Amino acid sequence: MTKRLRSILTTVGMLSALSSPLAMADTIKVAFIDPLSGPFAPVGQNLLRSYQMVAEIANREKWAPGHTFEVNGFDNKASPQESLTQLKTVIDQGYRYITQGNGSGAAGALIDAINKHNERNPGKEVVFLNYAAVDPDLTNSKCSFWHFRTDANSDMKMEAMTTYIAKDKNIKKVYIIGQNYAHGQQVTRAAKEYLKRKRPDIEIVGDDLHPIGSVKDFSPYVAKINASGADTVITGNWGSDLALLIKAARESDLKAKFYTYYAYTTGVPTVMGAAGAEHVRYVGTWNVNNETYAGKDLIDAFKKKYNDDYYAVTTYSSIQLLAKGVVQAKSTDAVKVAFAMEGQKFKTLNGDVEMRKTDHQLQQPMYVTTWVKTNKKDVQFDQENTGYGWRTDQKVDSFVASQPTSCVMKRPS
What we know:
Elements: H1 2-19, E1 27-34, H2 41-61, E2 68-75, H3 80-92, E3 97-100, H4 104-120, E4 127-130, E5 147-149, H5 154-166, E6 173-179, H6 182-198, E7 203-210, H7 219-228, E8 232-235, H8 240-251, E9 257-260, H9 268-272, E10 280-284, H10 296-306, H11 313-329, H12 334-341, E11 345-348, E12 351-355, E13 362-363, E14 366-373, E15 388-396, H13 398-401
Parallel strand pairs: 1-2, 1-3, 3-4, 4-5, 6-7, 6-8, 8-9, 9-10
Antiparallel strand pairs: 10-14, 11-12, 12-13, 14-15
């Protein structure tokens, strides 16, 4: 009788262990909450596929042994309010990790909602992987323990951009144009502030903010730029707002050079074509035509599977960061993984990076690039089958673009 009882208890113990989250292989589900319809849908679709391909690589290469990653899309229509609706949906479905990037307004709303949810629902905490919403406030005055940004914020990008601009003595007059929401407003502020510090002789001849996602014809704005005599345009526009702006500039034969954050995103390369050669630059966290062609296999596989271009290294870094957090925490529990992701140092496609513990802002190198005709040397990959791609003009070390933070992090006990 004693032996039989002992056997039963042993069996029950084994079954209990197997049913625990730590013993079982978990599927780590990530909810992608971004525009999958409307004017910004092409960018959103590209980025969802990027995440899904990186998840496939992570599963195949066992970035988190015993676990698999799954990324599913939820359409927020580029709306902060719709983002909150989708957040409730994914939480109800059991998601504990979300990712979003296209729109700092949506990101701010999500951070506020997640802070409240996590405070009220211990044991059901949610972690936010921000791969592209770059308002500096999100890791400063609005910083949150639950929020991790794998993109560089707009001030970091502007630091790199204006350092490069400062060296070009041919630049005399700058026109700033952007979308009228948090990101566009921050780009305008930083451009003025940093140029005044580095090149006080440069004249700001114009500064426009336009409604996001609703301007169909940018020719009136381009006419103002032309009339101002600007030799350079700085813009944080993305998606259709950037494509239509550059289209209007091309049709008006505007001679000014463009310094952008997002000229590599879906739709813009096709609009630029040959007309943008040597006239358009972007400053970002990666270039597919990087110094060692890191990520070449991923670029080739993405092109083959989707007939599209992989360009957002932040999707790769986000899954890497999450995987490293899971491995270090030896758990998929959101709280334990969040603590484990703090301070993580790892090598990704753009080099050595660090998730700064102070504010959860990834510190990383950046690239200054120019749109040129492809060759078989430093510009092997084109975009959108145009025969043109991005030449690396300068790789900026992490410490050069790094910015101080005002974040006072409140961590759970």
